Amino acid sequence: MPLYPASVNIDFDATALNATIALITDQLAELQTRIESNEGSITNITTQLTSQDTRLNSIELTETNLWSNFNGLTSSVNLLAATVSSQESTISYVNNENATQRVQIEGLQAQLTTLQQLLPHEFQHFHDTSKVLVGNGLSAVQVAASFYATMWQQNPAALNDSFSFTALLAPGTYTLVMLVTRANNKGKLKLSINGTQAFDDLDGYNSTAIYERITRTITITAGGLQQFVFSVWSKNASSTGYAFLINKISAYKI
User: Fold this and answer.
1) Are 248 and 167 in contact, with CB atoms under 8 Å apart?
2) Lowest mean pLDDT, pick from 14-18, 24-28, 184-188
3) What digits encode the pLDDT tens for the residues 221-234?
4) pTM value?
5) Which of 122, 196, 202, 227 has CB atoms 3.0–4.6 Å from 252's, for a disulfide?
6) How far apart are CA 175 and CA 124, in angstroms?
């Protein structure tokens, strides 16, 4: 509203003054609105700045962690490199040791080859020196027709009687020679060498007593001391017993 009535007679123009006052009032109101708006903007900016500070702190922390992780990774890589170097050193040492041992082994193999060539290629074994494994002891029997007159057998004889002896031989194929007496009371004999069966077809039965030189082919797979084990494992259906009469067993390399 106008501050002064229009009809008052004053030296200035009241209408213009009122208009000016009204304009100023409007401008003040607009300014107030703008100030309030600015205050809101300032508050918003402050909030944004605070948020930005938080993000900056987070970025700095992330950067710190990044460098920390990088340093840790570098340390791990360096440790791994040191470990690999250590392993390479160990492997090199082992390889050197292996190379040395190979040379030693080759030397030993050469010596063994030489020794194999020096091993006997034959043996002779008289049955009276056999070791009884199963059954009764050995008894002498006079056989005039035999080369040595006296033969030996386990007495009384029984199924599964067995005896053994050892002989030093080179590897190879041998002819085994057995001087035996065959008769109507003899059993069947089998042989194993170092635990492996060589044959099981030696039948001592014959209707009349005869002195024979019986041969078999055997194989010695590895040179050295060989164990021969003879066993009575059966008998001919016509035989009356399990005896086996022998005086000498020998072999020679083919």
Assistant:
1) no
2) 14-18
3) 999 999 999 999 99
4) 0.60
5) 122
6) 12
